[in-house]
Amino acid sequence: MMAVKILWWITLFLIIEAMVGYPLSLLLLRKGLHIQPNRKDYSYEPPVTVMVVAHNEEKVILEKLNNLQELHYPPEKIKVLVTSDCSTDNTNAIVRDFIAAHPGCDIRLHETVEHKGKTNAQNEAQRLVDTELLILTDANAMLDRDAVRELAASFSEENIAYVSGQLVYLNTDDNSTANSEGIYWKMDLMCREIESELQTITAGNGAIYAVRNDAYIEIPPVECHDSSFPVLFALQRKRAIYNKDAIAYEKAGEIDEDEFKRKVRMNRDILREILPDVSILNVSKYKWFSYFYFGHRTCRYLLWALHIILLALTIALLPEGLFWKIMFAAQIAFYSVAAFGWACKVQNRIVRMMTYYCMTIAAQCKGVINILTGRSKPVWEKAESTRE
Fold first, then answer.
1. Which residues fall within 8 angstroms of residue 339, CB to CB, at 6 or more apart?
2. Which of 192-196, 246-250, 262-266, 298-302 has the lowest mean pLDDT?
3. What are the start-end ranges of the E strands in the chain?
4. Rounded distance between C-alpha atoms, residue 378 and residue 221, angstroms
């Protein structure tokens, strides 16, 4: 049973590393190495294309287009490209009317031939882009007026291929589900900031990011730029960085069911993302990125399996004494409280965090099941509570 006990402790360590140990280690690294923020060059104002992917976004697309007209960036250097992924509502008509009403603006609508999801729509539309930088943003994410200026200024070095901005959730004070997501998101952004200062981030976010157009890589529709681009660039020895001053605003899901669906979508390629390339672990070649990916991504994408393994090992160790019985009872109690919190919509802060964490694990499990049963697809239903 000694081998089982050792495996139990290793499993517990990896769970703690994913959620607590890794963020703490980054804070210690920041303090110990005295790292500095990335340099910005505000004199760098190249022509940019702002790409907005939309599928049935009639509720927000007009607000988005108006939002893009308010950016603090030379208007003659901005092109707007709306790529509609086979929208069947009034999205396309709204965009066409906006284009007609703004003849002095460089706005274009691209309609995909097939409904294959966000990544495919981006791949198609990127082939039409001729500017130095490509900025990608969601239809429901409203950009801060200085967002494009901040993104462009971050490309201060030639080896920087990708810049992710900061997504700020607007409704975290008004809704418990959004609040739980907001707490988790703030910790994640703190990790990205330190990763960026030391070397390169492990993931971006789809609401606001920029890429050098000549560095753009077409990826399969089931994958997403958020998770794939930073890794692909890191493997090319290029940098993907984070600029917290390039801000986009949107609502987090206000309904547990909406947030669960969003997380299932995020995990539609989770098995590949655990370790997309074994060479990532080559510390001598990729330096800090090897540790970043293992701690921030591999351990986190394995949480679903680690919790199952931990429970199974604990059951196997029950005859070994009181400690293992207590550990079994603690796990059952944790999951029971989380399930109760979900079913009864408990508003207690601690219970909400337990519920949110277990919902994340359940979404990972669902994502794995979808992959194994062939139900993982590049298209999805958006959370309507984020558009209201």
1. 355, 358
2. 262-266
3. 48-54, 78-84, 107-111, 133-138, 142-143, 160-169, 208-212, 239-250
4. 6
Which two three-digit tokens encode residue 264?
């299932």
Q: How many helices (H) and strands (E) does the chain have?
A: 16, 8
Amino acid at site 33: L
Q: pLDDT value at position 173?
A: 57
Radius of gyration of the chain (CA): 22
Residue-range domains of the chain with CATH: 48-254 (3.90.550.10)
Round to whole Å and give the CA distance between 353 and 355. 5
pLDDT of residue 35: 85
Query: Rounded to an integer, what distance in angstroms lies between the CA atom of residue 165 and that of residue 148?
Result: 9
**Residue 222, exposed/middle/buried by CB under 10 A (0-12, 13-18, 19+)?**
middle
CA distance 240 to 266: 20
CB atoms within 10 A of CB 226: 17
What DSSP character marks residue 385?
A: G
Backbone angles phi, psi at 89, to 5 degrees: -100, -150
Q: CA-CA distance, 306 to 296, in Å (whole number)? A: 15
- Angle of CA points 298, 302, 308, to nearest 5°: 160
3-state secondary structure of 304: helix
What is the per-residue burial (b if ≥16 Cβ within 10 Å, else e) of 281-308? eeeeebebbbbbbbbbbbbbbbbbbbbe
CB 2 within 8 A of CB 315: no
- Joined together, the tokens standing for residue 63 give 């607000």
Task: Report the Cα–Cα distance between both ends of the chain, in Å, rounded.
Answer: 55
At 197-222, the pLDDT tens digits run: 999 999 999 999 999 999 999 999 99
The Cα–Cα gap between 213 and 132 comes to 6
Phi-psi region of 252 (alpha: psi -120 to 50; beta: other; left: phi over 0): beta
- The pTM (predicted TM-score) of the whole model is 0.91
Q: Which of 205, 206, 204 is nearest to 118 (CA)?
A: 206
Q: How far apart are CA 306 and CA 146, in angstroms?
A: 42
